[in-house]
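Slide 14.
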Amino acid sequence: MLGTVLEEQGGPQLLRTVEAIRRAAIVERTHAAADSPRSHLAAAVAELDGRQLVDIARAFTTYFHLINTAEERQRLLRLRIHELHEGRRPGSPADVLAKLAADGLGNEALADLIGHLHIQPVFTAHPSEVRRRSIITHLIRVRELLIQRRASGLTPAERDALDESMLRVIGVLWQTDEIPASRPTPEEEVSHGLFYLRSTVYPLLPLLYRELERDVRAASPDGATDLGAFLRFGSWIGGDRDGNPYVTHDVTRRVLLLQRDAVLGAYQDDLAELMDALSQSTRRVPVSSELIASIERDCTEMAAEGEAARQQFPFEPYRQKLSLMRARLSHVAAAESDGNPQRSYASPSYLLDDLQLIRQALIEHGGRRQAETQVDDLERRVRAFGFHLAALDIRQISRVHEAAVAELLARADIAHSYDTLVEADRRDVLLRALATLEADTTLLDGYSEETQEALQLFHTIREMQAVLGPEACHTYIISDTEEVSDVLEVLLLARATGLVRLNAEGTLTGALRTVPLFERVESLHNAGRVVDELLHMPVHRSLLVQWNDVQEVMVGYSDSNKDGGYVTASWELYRAKRQLAESCSRHGVGLMLFHGRGGAIGRGGGPTVGAIAAEPPQAIGGRFKVTEQGEVIHARYANPDIAHRHLEQLIGAVLSTSLTPEVEVVPAWLAIMDEVSEQAHAAYRTLVAGAEGFLDYFLQSTPIGEISELRTSSRPARRAAGNVETLRAIPWVFSWTQSRANIPGWYGVGTGLGLETFRNDDPDRLRELQSMYRGWPFFRSLLDNAQISLAIADMRIAALYADLVEDEQVRERILGMILAEYRRTQQGLLAVTGQPELLSNVPVLRDSIALRNPYLDPLHAIQVRLLREMRAAVSREGDSKVDELRYAVQHTISGIAAGLQSTG
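Slide 15: predicted structure.
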């Protein structure tokens, strides 16, 4: 069908050219020696003019869009076949709990876990989604047509009509611009996130609850099955201001109100459906006196709406009540301004009370099935989504708070040189200020612009909590946390603006959850100590009471990897999680880790189930919060069936890891892992920080400049001007992925394993590493993810990009280091895992990569040519071709991302 569209839109010559390039790429992948040049493909690409380059790139990009959609559908079909044969899906809660029950899982252990189970995916607007919303919309239509096309009993005419519809959508897909014309605003990013929350998450949530309740009953018939609101969703969109000047306090306010309107509209739709369904008449069946009394109260408070309901539904009390409930919901948004809050719901709890009245009345009078499905479903949604839909987390970098506190303390005449104080003195000053500084709930004029914005944010949080409830916005994440003072600074700003209050006992109250974020290697190393010291402080400890004595801590996978490399970041994260769990345990406090994972392995991505299984069990404990970033949101939530599968696997993995006894880690393994990390870190830092010319190599051998100019997010690519250190992790990983060097996901593994170094003087080294791979989930996940990264990497393609480096000596030196470590890592992985080739243990993934490579090769060849021409044009002042070439490069970036199904 794509071939038909290409011929219709570009003529027979376009299709012939695409086919010629495709065949040349396949031949060279199939028959060329590993080190032979790609002469035929390069020659074919060299003959293309500018317009043809864009069309060929779009052809292969569209192919990947379509094949990704088809593969997604096939995955679901295979899963369905498995369920039909086995009775349950692998990795689902039903599967996990059945296996645990067979192994002797006790009712008490399961009930204890269910009592505090908390799983929270958090949507972010991180710029790793390169597809425009229009492209995504057309691909969703392709998916729908694929589903319809597989329906049984289609007539030939019906199948022809579906095929014609498919051709029409593919045609529109071809004609739609792949490249956004401008950066999205934060509000537009919210709209994108709301699309998935409203269209997929909202309808799916009750099904997940029903399934888990069923599975828990099956595994523990005599145990408790009350799940509470265990599955909730969060968002950073409009709350994450770390390095994003476009997210202001006013944006945060507007975003929260947009989310409120979205969820209230969804409730209105559900209540309308219930009105259609609950047509019971008092002429046929009685109704509870409690429900009648509540209708009378509603009619008194809402006279006009009450009279209308009675006239429209004279003998149908459920419809009367639901009509009045819809009227109350319609007044929620205006309750704070119309002077009559009695006509609205003051909080979600009042809506829940009304739903409980209806539920109980139905159960008492022959409507149990409707009560336990339709009414219960809406009740579950209200418990999870409240009047806010997704809890909006606030994130800001610690230096902003430091500057604001310095101004605040100077103005209050408490300290005039706060920023010069050492940590111990900072703590003393902050604790004294927390005890003595009076709150000022005005806007606090007279401060610098940055401090004004920081203070106004706390005012906004307080205001929105009053309107939407504390659950709407209460988590404050502190990026780049290094010491206790970084958290105390936030508490002081909250105290100064009235968000939290000081009690007579010297403790704090208020709906604020301060969450330190440990990102870099050194901060991860100190994370356990910092949290331990925080929990010793009553001003911090007292705020945990309303959060059920649970301390939330965020750990960053992206910046730690960029800072220390794949191995060291993974190991320091693992150690930090264990230390954090131990610190919280000593204080009798629960721990909820917030995992800042991206989509790529270099940013903490990879298979979700394996990642959770590799966590220290004491660091999970039934609580799991994780970011869903950029491209990952579309991959996991665009298709409701894929979303269902992802979330059931997430729930199953948390249950399994929390309820399975911890694997005993041999002390010698910890020592070996320290050694592996140290050697891997040295190799990584030697490359990125020590190798002369590395920065030039990176800037010239990857499309980092063009990626930074992509209009995929409101957030800039850098926190500030500077070198690699100031570059955000997403473009860092994205760039290496495009050039297929992929170093954030594997570099240093070979040196760390040390098989070359230890082969002669330590013959048991390999056997010990093999034992670690078999017996330690963390180590197995570390190497398995490195396998995936290495298999996606392609050194022949990376060498094509290296040819863009102008300095031959720099090119040869840096590429030589990368090639040597690649070979070292490949040999080490195969030796430790005992496989004949990479990914032999995951043949489907191995074959998928092999099948996609020939279709990616043309995109790489075109991108390298375009980068060379564009950079030459930039050097010629006033060359008008630069914008045209940049536009073409951006098409190749999109196509390679679609082919690899990975960006940052």
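Speaker note: The first strand starts at residue 118 and ends at 124.
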